[in-house]
Amino acid sequence: MIATTSTASQINLADVNATPVWQQLASDAVTDPAELLELLGLDSALLPDAQAAARTFGLRVPRGFIARMRHGDPLDPLLLQVLPLQQELNKNREFSKDPVGDLASRTAPGVLHKYRGRALLIATGACAVHCRYCFRRHFPYSEDTASADRWRAALTYVRDDTSIEEVILSGGDPLNLSDRRLEELTEELERIPHVRRLRIHTRTAVVLPERIDSHFCRWLSGVRLQKIVVLHVNHAQEVDSRVRAMCSQLKACEATLLNQSVLLAGVNDSIQALSQLSETLFAAGVLPYYLSLLDRVEGAAHFEVSEALGRKLVQALTTRLPGYLVPKLVREVMGAEAKTSVSLSV
Asked: For residue 52, is it within any domain?
């Protein structure tokens, strides 16, 4: 009996000190293009180009997200979002490393302040997945995040600007921070009288739904600010049973759930894909919010869908779906005072 009690105590202590499951899964992400191709049964002829592109922007994708991809299909819409391709190395003068003017909008370490009433914190440079179209794939995270001791300067900036009512946690992905770090940050934000809302932008919750565990939910439930979680889902195939359960957990924490997608060639540039995405999101308790035209970041030109086609697709959505399921077609224009809505009329 003594041995049993001792063993139980050791197990409990180990559980307390154990690395969270989501962190274990994140660290076990696939980072080698050869392994990705092998797991999906794809032609090894794709490997040289994938390796070349990965040298400029590394591959990272959780195994659970890979499991949602179609085996043997090089055109799978989830695979296309993460597989490094030779086209990324092609130069295009209309695409730049800072397509939305992030660098010019820095007002304090890790703070981007573009729009009135809202400030964005680059909480971390880490993300659970490397999307090939990411508009911050060239962002100098090592020089400019709000994390660690730099939170002091970021929080001072927010505290001093009384026009800021909403703080947006972005990155990278803010959910790559530990629950303890998130709690430290939000406790400070709650002490700022004029901050009323907390908005969290995350792709990690979608590709690694295990991140939304009981510890995370305890933290989020305890946040006294109004809470908005903006997910990033581009295709209905991304929403499996685990993602639906994750959405239910977030809603139980009294968070408003929105989604913003990027219109991507070969991924969701059809009326069928977009309508199915909206229906799937709403069934999971998530409201379609934005459908963004591609930010013209260097290395992503092959994903671009023309504004004319984007307009036609959303016009078609309005005839197929109720208005609340039609996301707003937008683009981000450098220097503009808000997201720019794309008119559906020519």
From this structure: yes
One domain, residues 120 and 72: no
Q: What CA–CA distance (Å, rounded) separates 310 from 145?
A: 33
Residue 213 included in any domain: yes
**How many domains would you assign to the chain?**
2
Domain shared by 124 and 146, yes or no:
yes
**Mind listing the pLDDT tens digit of every residue in the chain (346 residues)?**
333 333 333 334 444 468 999 999 999 999 999 999 999 999 999 999 999 999 999 999 999 999 999 999 999 999 999 999 999 999 999 999 999 999 999 999 889 999 999 999 999 999 999 999 999 999 888 777 766 566 889 999 999 999 999 999 999 999 999 999 999 999 999 999 999 999 999 999 999 999 999 999 999 999 999 999 999 999 999 999 999 999 999 999 999 999 999 999 999 999 999 999 999 999 999 999 999 999 999 999 999 999 999 999 999 999 999 999 999 999 999 888 889 999 998 6
97 belongs to a structural domain: no
Last residue within a domain, chosen from 62, 89, 116: 89
CATH number for 268:
3.20.20.70
Q: Is residue 48 part of a domain?
A: yes
How deeply is 94 buried, as exposed, middle or buried, from its count of CB atoms within 10 A (0-12, 13-18, 19+)? exposed
Model-wide pTM > 0.85: yes
Strand segments (E) across the chain:
106-108, 111-112, 118-122, 166-170, 197-202, 226-231, 255-262, 287-292, 328-331, 340-341
- Say how far residue 50 (Cα) sits from the centre of its chain: 22
Q: What's the domain range around 146?
A: 103-341
Q: What angle do CA 69, 71, 76 make, to 5 degrees?
A: 50
One domain for residues 321 and 221: yes
What CA–CA distance (Å, rounded) separates 32 from 59?
Answer: 7
> Is the separation of the CB atoms in 247 and 280 below 8 Å?
no
